[in-house]
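step 3/5: co-fold with flavin-adenine dinucleotide
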Amino acid sequence: MHEIFIETEDQRAILDTVRRFVEDEVTPRAAELDAKEDPEDGFSWEIVEKAHEVGIRTMTLSEEYGGLGTDSLTTSMVIEELGKGDLGISVIFAQTLKIAQIMQKALNEEQQTRILPGFAEDPRGMLAIGITEPDNASNYFIPHPTPFATSAERADGGWIVNGMKHFISNGNRASFYLLFVQTEKGKNLADGATCFLVERDRPGFTIGRVHDKMGERLANNAELIFQDCFMPDENVVGTVGNGYNVLSDFFPQSNAYAGASVLGVAEACYAKAEEWAKIRVQGGKPLVEHDGIRAQLAEMRMLLDASRSYIHRACYLADHQEEGWDKTLGALPKAMASQAAWKIATWCMEIHGGHGFMKEFGVAKLMRDSAAFLHSDGVNRTLFLKAARFMFEE
Ligand SMILES: Cc1cc2nc3c(=O)[nH]c(=O)nc-3n(C[C@H](O)[C@H](O)[C@H](O)COP(=O)(O)OP(=O)(O)OC[C@H]3O[C@@H](n4cnc5c(N)ncnc54)[C@H](O)[C@@H]3O)c2cc1C
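step 4/5: write tokens
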């Protein structure tokens, strides 16, 4: 069997650590944090610090910086495992783990030396990526001929940035950001944008609103506001005008990681549905002994397994592109996993009957969480359009 379908010893050891972390630190607190009224209160630095202690926060950093240098396949398994405990926790680390991976490829040596040691040592070090704007969102996924509204004017030794981003995961919690800014007027966002490395304390950069979300509440999303914010030339990532390619060149597995987060939620829904089907007796026998329910559970299992295989294939091939990487793998696994998760969540609710509608059973939280990735990381419809472009135009 191909190696992507077998867990190695190393992966097993890492996943055992993650499972213990989820069991000890996440599961006991997730419902209470999810219920907090103020969206900022759903985020827990304690959980982040515990993840740091067991090496999860820095796992994708190379050994030189104290990490494990985990490959994309292993990282997706970790993200899925975290998602079984809570979607928000999975997302805050998925963002940090993936951006740390991008930074080790896309930042030049000076930039890496300047920021990675500090990020590695800071138990609260989080990372974020700012692309989406109120009027420019799906346009980024299917390059539409509009420029980003967040733009920069040339200044002595750098750029003056004005504008705002919104919906940004870890937006109010990160210490470093990758920010996409229009640096060339008269061009669209695919041709005239530049990626900048931004430090949290840079003058002219402030955090706006923290969004009040219906789910994924253990993660925070926020607005990033730039008012005459000076970015020195040393903070340009890659080359000026080449921002759009930073993600595709340096991070083909981003979509599969998003799929892994929501797959974790789908797993949690399945486990709850199976457990309930075994204890709830109607029609003289447990639900699991009724054909309709058994078939439904088997279909849920199929959707989980197929989504996971797709994610694993995308992650493996992203790291071994010469073995058959195909660009649709950078768009479709998340669409599949999130559609599967939504279906599995609604079936979990159905199998619970009226009990599923009662908050105390925990199905409602899973349903709210399972909706997050129908839109996050690209609305699925736009990801299908993106894949179709790869299939028929490139
Ligand atoms: C929980 C969460 C976390 C997020 N985290 C981040 C983050 O960390 N960083 C970041 O930069 N962004 C982030 N986003 C933004 C996310 O990527 C966008 O929400 C997403 O790209 C969709 O943008 P939109 O919500 O404005 O929808 P719109 O772009 O307004 O789309 C609305 C609808 O129109 C459809 N549509 C749009 N354009 C077309 C077209 N040309 N043809 C056909 N149909 C179209 C879409 O499919 C969708 O159904 C996050 C969003 C969420 C919800």
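step 5/5: annotate
The pocket of flavin-adenine dinucleotide is lined by residues 129-132, 137-138, 142, 144, 167-169, 216, 221, 372, 375-379, 381-382 (CB under 6 Å).
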